[in-house]
Amino acid sequence: MIKYKNNEKALLTEIQSYVDKTYEGHYSGKGGVQANDLIESTGLSMGFYLGNIFKYGARYGKKKGANRADLIKIIHYGLLALNEHDRSLNEDK
Fold this sequence. Notes:
mainly alpha, 4 helices, single chain
């Protein structure tokens, strides 16, 4: 078993819980289309995800002080960008 030094296991569990809640949120609705799906259909999703990483990074420490939620959103958008990266590589094959 790995002995994490920096609380990574608990933080990853928290991130997963946050992501799970985004699928239950009011934006997704029952059978509805999420904004990410629409943006992906335009081919602009990587720019959108990276833009949000910059937005929340720039906002950290300003809106509501050192807002921990901004850091969680950065990680979530990073995961979305990583998925888009992998997806686009598979499309090129």
